[in-house]
Design a protein that fits this description.
single chain; 63 residues; alpha+beta; Molybdopterin biosynthesis moea protein, domain 2; 3 strands; 16% strand
Amino acid sequence: MIDQLMTIEEVAQYMRVSRFTIYRLAKSRFIPATKIGRQWRFQKEEIDRWVRDQSQRGHYRVL
């Protein structure tokens, strides 16, 4: 499981947004994330599910 976790940088590249955007989303608990020590970690499957759910809601938020 630990090898499947992504860092903020990896999620930012994967989603093609800035690292700061991912950090703000994680800190506000808007995106599924886990804090391990002082760093945020993300599971790819949860990120994919979150993106799919957000796109199915029919509204888009420009960051």
